[in-house]
Amino acid sequence: MDSSKNGDATPLSRFESKVRAKAKAVAGVAPPPVAAARAGRGGWKKGVAVFDFLLRLVATGTTLAAATTMGTTDQTLPFFTQFFQFQASYDDLPAFTFFVIANAGPSAYLVLSLPFSIVCIVRPQAVGPRLLLLIFDTIFVALTMAAASLAAAIIYLAQNANWLAICRQFNDFCQEVSGAVVASFVAALIFIFLVVLSTISLKRL
After folding, report:
1. Which of 95, 92, 93 lies closest to 146 in space, CA to CA?
2. From the centroid of its chain, how far is CA 187?
């Protein structure tokens, strides 16, 4: 009797062990819809990271163009004698000097931020690099917007207020400064868009 019972229990125990092994294997694998959802989310974040990288390249060019255009702006009015000359340069006004610094700084930052942006492409789920970029992008939004607004106010006064004679005489100077201000505003808008992208990406983690 004991031998027959042991013989009957052996197949049953084997069957139970197989069922348990299959249950553990199924439990260890994520359901296909969940895995597909995670893969889709990672692909979306990777696309955002690639777009972020491209925007940083564009912003680097615009901030560098704004800083170099303003920093090299210089015009001297021709007169008959070399002892009396009228010259306009960006360093004649503290607002324009601040403008050069406020656009050169973000340009250097954008170059340094490119490796972090690449990390976000390789690891779309990473929180640290994305959060770091969000903080510094927000700071440089304020800096570039302040510099562009201050320089735009000076140009507005020079072209439409009591300084109208200045831009009539220094026409090239005012045009180059205006171009630098436009480039700085474009860079500020790109920074705002970068902040929005980072915020959305962090919210969907």
Report:
1. 95
2. 10
Tell me the sheet residues that pair with 75.
Answer: 88
- Alpha carbon distance 16, 10 (integer Å): 10
C-alpha–C-alpha distance, residues 119 and 49, integer Å: 9
Residue 96, helix vs strand vs coil: helix
Q: What are the boundaries of each domain within the chain?
A: 31-203
**What Cα–Cα distance (Å) separates residue 198 from each residue in 19, 113, 192?**
47, 13, 10
Note the pLDDT tens digit of each residue in 91-139: 778 888 899 999 999 999 999 999 999 999 998 888 889 999 999 999 9
H or E element at residue 88: strand 86-89
Measured distance CA(135)–CA(142) in Å, rounded: 11
